[in-house]
């Protein structure tokens, strides 16, 4: 874990013994892919998701050539720099977290570049989701394990990425893994994830699932 990530986790205001919900942001709290598709179109690139991955899905609008890994990284970095502050909320997310907040502490664990963390916090706060935000890179399992250790209580992890559900199982096996997206745009390409403990079709169902679990 990088010193920057460790410092963010240390600084997160956690109360030991209180249930913890660790929640992803893109495609769970705020829309990402449809916004990225609009933004890419303005740069001369097309997003055509045929499966749950960006590799091969971004093509030059003129030539149809797929963007290479380095180009994708550069485009995403610019997208986060220019657009994070105005990502649109997913329906039901703010109300869902508000319903859960009386019985659990909530932390947002999100893969945004460090330079976009403040914009992500402001954007979420503007949507009524003013929770601590931890900017992660790569797999989230190690950060999740450290958050769970500090919470010393039941922990649930919510993410739309199959890779992150697998990372959670590997590094934080005691955490309940919920595979979830609130995005209609993403649902047609969303695979089943065998490593998840649960899935939910929408935010109200997700809230009901968590409330049942913690009675
Ligand atoms: Mg996500």
Brief overview, please?
With 215 residues, the chain is α/β, with parallel strands linked by helices. It is 40% helix and 14% strand.
Keywords, separated by commas or semicolons:
globular; 40% helix; binds magnesium ion; 215 residues; single chain
Q: If you had to describe this structure to a student in words, what would you say it looks like?
A:
The chain is an alpha/beta fold and 215 residues long. Helix content is 40%, strand content 14%. It is built from 8 helices and 8 strands; from the N terminus they run αβαββααβαβαβαββα. The protein has helices at residues 3-11, 33-42, 69-83, 93-100, 117-126, 141-151, 162-171, 203-214; strands spanning 20-23, 45-47, 58-60, 105-110, 133-135, 155-159, 176-179, 198-199. The chain has a 6-stranded parallel β-sheet, sandwiched between helices. Strands 2-3 form a two-stranded antiparallel sheet. β4 (105-110), α5 and β5 form a beta-alpha-beta unit. The structure holds magnesium ion (MG).
Give the integer mean of the pLDDT values: 95
SS content category = alpha/beta
CATH architect. name of the largest domain: 3-Layer(aba) Sandwich
Instruction: Estimate the helix proportion, in percent.
Output: 25-40%
List the SSEs and their pairings:
Blueprint: H1 3-11, E1 20-23, H2 33-42, E2 45-47, E3 58-60, H3 69-83, H4 93-100, E4 105-110, H5 117-126, E5 133-135, H6 141-151, E6 155-159, H7 162-171, E7 176-179, E8 198-199, H8 203-214
Parallel strand pairs: 1-4, 1-6, 4-5, 6-7, 7-8
Antiparallel strand pairs: 2-3
Helix pairs in contact: 4-8, 6-7
Bound molecules: magnesium ion (MG).
